[in-house]
């Protein structure tokens, strides 16, 4: 493993040192990489045959950011000193203030510490689709290698605050429009163009710009104060219990008031404090937990291959059914929507069209993709179109006899490989499937409302559900950008099983005479989006 983690350097006849980060899959900044970057930079700066430096990442990706496993180690040991120092020694001293110019050659992605490396360079060349962002706040910390200072100096305060506080990515194409990227080019031209750009800086034909020294994008002090004060109010509204938001704004403000170097010093101090905070511990735990949900013993580790789910039937076009259909259509899966009469069917199709328009308005779907999604939808009033579906998802009201008769019917019509799924939130799956002979294909696909937006998908398995059916549903979950969590078949499954005591506890307090508005207020102050009674 350690052998594949390395930083390489090749010096060309043109006098450019090409330094490459290699740590598949996304070239994360493992401590070995940060050490390697310091070594290669020291060598390049010391060599007489090197005039300029180009920094890039192997295999079509620049760098996905800091290695989050190191945060876990800090949380286990409580020892902050194991965090490799990158901000002063590498980004500020060797790269930005080094006596030879550096150009970042960016493709794929440059996120977190990866983006901070590019900002320590004197120019940035990228492919148009590359993703740029500083998502550190989602892990309870702030950018720790100068990002809070250099990003506002490159794209202006409002955009920088949006990118950091909302962890919003931009494409390099937008980065070029905002002055962050100096030039765009195709992947084939990237290294060549970056080399010649670096040489032109070295020969004083292109400007040698140190991001930290720039103030032209920051605006006046009073403008900066106004922008920061607005951002503070906004952060208080949406993330009152997340200390990293206000801390990030404090650090940005320090730099706006006292200059970039003062800002970088404060950033390093605050970063170290936040890394050991309970918020960061919890968010890093959630980050790894979320990624482990798709690893299920006896399902994902037995060399099974997921089958291709091309066409799904959804029974019931109400709020839940139409939301589920929307999610599938956006994931490029054909949908047959089945209802009991033309009025209900039309209402379901209307709801789906409305959902898709809503996604376009939010900017998460293009007009073209919307038309494509609508073209994949077919309405039905009987089961004749179910002959070639790969999966059925039943989303009708919670009535046992109705669900049982639906499952008995579809078992006769659907192909033998078809997965028979139910969106029930509480009913025992063995009861739903007891009138069929297909218990190995019966599975719970419990979505949450609104189903085309909420990321959770609860996959319920019985003792008889086959590993293949579970694997296929996990795969569909990933395709439609859900977080699939496989749970057992019991009352309330996992989500409602934790939710019932929560509401029961609230009702118990009211029956003891406590004001229900007070309960809601305390719960929403704690950080829930709304109280149990609201």
Name the descriptors.
46% helix, globular, delta(3)-delta(2)-enoyl-CoA isomerase activity, alpha/beta, 17 strands, 534 residues, lyase, oxidoreductase
Explain the overall architecture.
Helix content is 46%, strand content 15%. The protein has helices at 31-46, 68-77, 87-96, 113-120, 147-155, 157-165, 172-177, 190-202, 221-238, 243-258, 260-275, 278-292, 319-330, 342-362, 367-375, 400-413, 429-432, 467-479, 495-511, 516-526; strands at 6-11, 16-22, 52-57, 102-106, 109-111, 123-126, 131-133, 170-171, 183-184, 311-315, 334-338, 377-380, 391-394, 419-422, 442-447, 456-461, 483-488. α5 packs across α6.
Give the count of helical stretches.
Answer: 20
Helical amount: 40-55%
State the major sheet: 8 strands, mixed
Strand order of the largest sheet: 12-11-10-13-14-15-16-17
Any idea what the shape is?
Answer: globular
Radius of gyration: 27 Å
Distance separating the two termini: 52 Å
Strand content: 5-15%
Average pLDDT: 96
Number of strands: 17
> Helix- and strand-based class?
alpha/beta
Task: Report a brief summary of the structure.
This protein is 46% helix and 15% strand. The protein contains 20 helices and 17 strands.
Helices and strands in order:
Layout: E1 6-11, E2 16-22, H1 31-46, E3 52-57, H2 68-77, H3 87-96, E4 102-106, E5 109-111, H4 113-120, E6 123-126, E7 131-133, H5 147-155, H6 157-165, E8 170-171, H7 172-177, E9 183-184, H8 190-202, H9 221-238, H10 243-258, H11 260-275, H12 278-292, E10 311-315, H13 319-330, E11 334-338, H14 342-362, H15 367-375, E12 377-380, E13 391-394, H16 400-413, E14 419-422, H17 429-432, E15 442-447, E16 456-461, H18 467-479, E17 483-488, H19 495-511, H20 516-526
Parallel strand pairs: 2-3, 3-4, 4-6, 5-7, 6-9, 10-11, 10-13, 11-12, 13-14, 14-15, 16-17
Antiparallel strand pairs: 1-2, 7-8, 15-16
Helix pairs in contact: 1-3, 3-4, 4-5, 5-6, 6-9, 9-10, 10-11, 13-14, 14-15
